[in-house]
Amino acid sequence: MLAVIYAAVLIQPVAAPVWVNAAIGLAVAVAIAFAEARLHDAAATSVLGGLLGFSVGLATARAIGSSLFWANSGDTRVQFFHSLIILILPYLGLVVGARKGEWLEPSKLASLFRDSRPARRHRLLDTSVIIDGRVAEIVETGFLDGTLVVPQFVLKELQFIADSTDPLKRNRGRRGLDILHRIQKMSGIEVVISDLDFPAVKDVDMKLIELARSLGGKIVTNDVNLNKVAQLRGIDVLNINELAASLKPVVLPGEVMHVFISKEGKEPNQGVAYLDDGTMVVVDHARKMIGRNLDIAVTSVLQTTAGRMIFGRILGPDGPGHSHGTMDVRSVPHTPRPIASA
Q: Do 87 and 103 fall within a single domain?
């Protein structure tokens, strides 16, 4: 500050007494000290942005002034306009550049050239899950979001199954095609037939894994082997069987259930019932009760590789068949469905 005041007194920028020039030097020194205090905590990107903005504003002001060479420089209005743009444009560049200096960060600059649209979430459907059919209900309820991708090689495999001479395979393939047609008709669901192929890969499952890696999507399947191989290769998998198993009601030993005995069991005097989700219920001493609804008490629950099995015993006339806490899972007579693998 003393140096600036001394320079002002020595140079005398205005034709005035010494104390006036000293006051001007003091004012300039105070302004410099204030600016230094503000810049002390400023981010480097803000400072750099302010300098760039100031330079751009000054260059713009000079360009505008040079383009007005035809104007009468002696006119006070032209002089005022020149002075105005020299002051306003660099100031605006300084302020805007300091506020937007964060965009000079490398990550921000890279985002300018990045696609700002939301990323598409691809869900690749496997042949087994299409034939299974439960995926249609899951999609319809909205639990499976994103773009559903049906690879062309999966569609060809499905058509090959539908054209099989084996009636069972032919029916399964046609059901899979009907499921795809049903999903395509659902409103708000985007189904894409992908033509991407990998000629060097012969196995359909490996092609599906490579396609999921290239699209950054997830595989929807109920194939246990494909599930394991995909996870080993770092591909996310949505397993329908795991979802179905997680949605089954929790049954604890001692709880009471109301079931329909549909057939006899393997062991003597055993009767078998099925819940609505296909879970097998084995009831002791229920062989003579086939075709009847019974109240049973759960004795144990067994989780196997084929699914879940519930064991129970018949409640006597004085049993807690209708007491508080009874778990009512009434079933109607129906053909037992295969138990989904865990």
A: yes
